[in-house]
Amino acid sequence: DPDSKKLAPIERKPRLLLMGLKRYAKITGVRYLVEANEDKCRSGKSSISNVVFRKMPPQDTLFLPTTTAILKESMHTFMDFQVWDLPGQIDYLDPNFDPDSIFGGVGAMVWVLDAVDNYMEPIGRLTETILHLQDSYPFIKFTVFIHKIDSIADDSREDVIRDIMQRITDDLYDAGLENPPINYYGTSIYDHSIFEGFSRVMQGLVPQLPIFENLLNTIKDRCHFEKLYLYDVYSKVYIASDTTPIAGSAYELGSDFIDLIVDLSEVHGWHRGNTQDSKMKAQQIYIEECGFEA
Amino acid sequence: MATLNKMEKKKVLLMGKSGSGKSSMRNIIFSNYRAKDVRRLGATIDVEHSNIKFLGNLTLNLWDCGGQDAFTGTYLTTQKSHVFSNVGVLIYVFDVESRSFDRDLATYTSITNALAEFSPSADVFALVHKIDLVNPEFRVKVVANREAAIQEASGPFAKSLKVFGTSIWDQSLYKAWGSIVNSLIPNLDVMERYLWGLMGETKAEEITLFEKATFLAVMKVTSEIGKKNPYPDRDEKMSNIIKTFKASLAKFTGDTAGPDFCEKFCISAPKFALIIEELTKNTYVMVVLPPGEAEANCARLNIGIARKRFASMDVLSGQEHDEGQDEGSGGN
Ligand SMILES: Nc1nc2c(ncn2[C@@H]2O[C@H](COP(=O)(O)OP(=O)(O)OP(=O)(O)O)[C@@H](O)[C@H]2O)c(=O)[nH]1
Ligand SMILES: Nc1nc2c(ncn2[C@@H]2O[C@H](COP(=O)(O)OP(=O)(O)O)[C@@H](O)[C@H]2O)c(=O)[nH]1
Ligand SMILES: [Mg+2]
CA B15 to CA B19: how far, in whole Å? Predict the structure, then answer.
């Protein structure tokens, strides 16, 4: 069917693929009381896209059903792009499968690796996929989220991340791929790490990134600011920051501040009816004598 | 009943099976912990006491009682009179995930019997906790079922018992604790009159008074327009929002004691203006107004004036001063 190969306009937007491995899919009916570890084998992709792009509270992801079909979503925030959530059990490497419909035009690929589960098998799958795609789609940037890192004790997180990086690098090296184009982040939906990880991935999709960075550098120098971030208010990912090294958790405080304003506006911004101008006025916020200096 | 110029100390017992979430709640409500920080807490050994100054002349003497069987055993035997006398409030926490609800109820009954013996006039609150683990569709039903069973096991407290479904992950926690502290604070009708006064001087839709450390709402007055706000649960929503941000600030500054929220906070949005300011040593006032800079400025001036009036009330400030200013205070 030749028509199906033509891409509809929506398909041409920068595309972000979320992939991960599911060893077996479990169809769960209505659950009364949920056992948190019933879903151990699901890597967390749907949770991630719901938390980052739909503002779902992390604890509510317990009740997400298993993904069984490719889920395509258009995001319209600071830029239009698509997120595709690929279910674990489809064999993308099957020769009968049309890879172009999925990987053609991909801007970034995020592989979600469950740090708690046995990660040997998913790593094998990941390197296989990368090697396969490198030939036909050399422009794809790969990012590995070492996910659910919150479930690992603080002092062994670094070790787990290092171990995973080493295994992937070694596997690829043995297959003849040196310096693979991969970034790694330890992530969890229960803190800001997932937003920071996504910020970096998204920045790879923003063509104007260098312009934004120059602009922020200029403001920073002129005003003697310490650090600047340009946020997307809706998702709280940052689209750009000035180019000084990132230190401390200013990003986290910034996104919590956005939460504060958005949440306040939700509770008190109901429609009063007779106010004459509902047009957007510049929103002003004053804070005086706060406990911190930004 | 409570007079305003006397220092008061109220004993609050926090009990329930080990792992039910007592210390988690305490640290979120009274210290700057975020929900995601409490996973690191270890089991409480014996009883952890804390004194929390609440609204100036009221001190909450909180007993977080470790729930392992061995400890519960001593509370009911050798330490019985020590633990259960002079109690103002008992908060009993049930873990919604518990696999032995019947056993939990039996323990609860022994506890309420001991309480009836030593502090018959105490208030009892039962929290059905970790409700986030129940599918949202069933939450109301699960809480109702448990409530019926708990009530049956409450002995003489069955009538006055209050039951809440709670989770550290949402505002349900603040709803329950708001109700608990409101049962402890003395009559505040003078304060209410002052708030109505402030309402008359501004175009406010709603004025709410929050306790400073917990950011629990202790009093509010609402105009006819303000009553149209579609969120009946906005007090606990506000507590949750501000506390979450405070905890984030505390983490950023590394100040574990916790910075204050900020002395003055004002947001001017297309549909409303909102001011949060420190009012007295122990309270914040929140004023919600129609949009417009003039109204907001006027309100801020009036808050400044009102601050002096409020400061003269020792229920809020905790300061000693002459009796003459305690007009209209007293019992209810
Ligand atoms: N899902 C969920 N977990 C919770 C909630 N509240 C507390 N927990 C978890 O329950 C565990 C035990 O909490 P604690 O507060 O230490 O329990 P405790 O009642 O003080 O236990 P003892 O001190 O031994 O009596 C912690 O790991 C918390 O993360 C909640 O509302 N929902
Ligand atoms: N502890 C922890 N659990 C997570 C995290 N992210 C997702 N989960 C849980 O993992 C389970 C599976 O997630 P889901 O998004 O459905 O996986 P998918 O099949 O890959 O889309 C859910 O129960 C989530 O609550 C995380 O960062 N930390
Ligand atoms: Mg404890």
Answer: 11
Q: Judge if B315 and B283 occupy the same domain.
A: yes
In this predicted structure, what is the pLDDT of residue B321? Answer: 43
B268 in contact with A at a CB cutoff of 8 Å?
yes
Question: Is the CB of A30 inside 8 Å of chain B's CB atoms?
Answer: yes
From the list B36, B97, B270, the residue facing A191 with the nearest CB is B36
Domain edge (last residue) among B125, B160, B182: B182
Residue-range definition of the domain harbouring residue B50: 8-182
- The DSSP bridge partners found for residue B59 are B9, B53
| Burial (CB count <10 Å: 0-12, 13-18, 19+), residue A37 | exposed
Test B269 with A265 for CB contact under 8 angstroms: yes
Phi-psi region of A162 (alpha: psi -120 to 50; beta: other; left: phi over 0): alpha
Q: Are B220 and B97 in the same domain?
A: no
Could you write out the DSSP letters of every residue in A34-59? --GGGGTT---HHHHHHHHHH---GG
Domain end marker among B148, B182, B216: B182
**Which residues in chain B are contacts of A61 at CB distance < 8 A?**
none
Q: Is the ipTM above a cut-off of 0.90?
A: no
Q: Model confidence over A40-77: pLDDT tens digits?
A: 457 788 888 889 888 888 888 888 876 666 777 777 77
Residue extents of the structural domains in chain A = 8-23+39-203, 209-268
Confidence tier at A207 by pLDDT (50, 70, 90): confident
A34–B136: do the CB atoms touch at under 8 Å?
no
The answer to whether residues B109 and B229 belong to one domain is no
Q: Are residues B176 and B200 in the same domain?
A: no
Answer for the pair A187, A110: CB distance below 8 angstroms, yes or no: no
Distance in Å, alpha carbon of B316 to nearest chain A alpha carbon: 21
pLDDT value of position A93? 58
Alpha helix stretches (DSSP H) within A137-192: 157-174
Do B212 and B310 lie in a common domain?
Answer: yes
| Number of domains chain B is built from | 2
Q: Which CATH class is domain A209-268?
A: alpha beta
Together in a domain, B111 and B218: no
Question: What sign has the CA pseudo-torsion B278, B280, B285, B291?
Answer: negative
How many A/B residue pairs have CB atoms within 8 Å? 141
Kindly report, residue by residue over B27-83, the tens digit of the pLDDT: 999 887 888 888 878 899 999 999 988 876 788 999 999 999 999 999 999 999 999
Q: Which of B64, B88, B84, B83 is nearest to B9 (CA)?
A: B88
Query: What pLDDT, on a 0 to 100 scale, did the predictor assign at position B148?
Result: 96
CATH code of domain A8-23+39-203: 3.40.50.300
Alpha helices (runs of H) in chain A, residue ranges in sequence order = 45-54, 100-103, 120-136, 157-174, 193-203, 209-223, 250-268
- Tell me the nearest-neighbour CA distance from A162 into chain B, angstroms: 24
